[in-house]
Amino acid sequence: MAISRDKKQALVKEFTDVLNTSKMTVAVAYVGTSVADMQKLRRAAREAGVYIKVLKNRLVKTSMKQTKAFESTDASLLNGQLFYAYSTEDEVAPAQVIDKLSKEIPSLALVAGFDNSGSILDTASVKALAGLPSKQQLIAEVVAQLLSPVHDTTNALSGNLHALLDGVEAHVA
């Protein structure tokens, strides 16, 4: 059954809003993926704050032309049966979720990605992004590095205090 013109326009407007608000959008080929695997993917994506949208490439390209950042972007990589994973909060979450699940579900393949500045990324670039730690992991690592001198000093003082107490105990006994 064909989609009406009004429905297509609504879908284009909705995806235009997605392109304007998302930090990263990833195009994924899913030919041969079972319904159970797609449900597993959607569940994992939801837990990571990533949204999945299945949309015709022609409508995505129309949305890109209506978005100021993407109006001159080359969308030639967007071919075949694709879905789009995007996140409004984390730049690398869509790539990470898809990359992780593509190891369990071999029919998933990263095709391309585009960020909110209008840049389109090829498959290798998207896979490289998937290897980066998430924003929360980076924050935790920075906090751990900042607290490291405090922990080192506390441990050193604690060790010296224990040695002093051991010496006093040996001298008293």
In short:
This protein is an alpha+beta fold. It is built from 6 helices and 5 strands. It has helices spanning 5-21, 35-47, 57-65, 93-104, 123-130, 135-172, and strands at residues 24-29, 51-54, 82-87, 109-115, 120-121.
Description:
There is one protein chain. With 173 residues, this protein is of the alpha+beta class. It has 2 domains: 5-132, 2-Layer Sandwich (Alpha-Beta Plaits), CATH 3.30.70.1730; 133-173. It has 6 helices and 5 strands. It has a 5-stranded antiparallel β-sheet. Strand 4 (109-115) and strand 5 form a beta hairpin. It starts with a helix and ends with a helix.
CATH topology of the largest domain: Alpha-Beta Plaits
Broad shape: elongated
From the 3D coordinates, which CATH architecture of the largest domain would you assign? 2-Layer Sandwich
Helix content: 55-70%
String of helices and strands: HEHEHEHEEHH
Task: Please provide the count of β strands.
Answer: 5
Q: In what range is the share of β-strand residues?
A: 5-15%
Compute the gyration radius: what is it? Answer: 24 Å
Q: Compute the number of structural domains.
A: 2
> Residue ranges: pLDDT <50 for 5 or more in a row?
none
In spatial order, strands of the major sheet run 2-3-1-4-5
Distance between the termini: 93 Å
The multimeric state of the shown protein is single chain
Structural class: alpha+beta
- Whole-number average pLDDT? 85
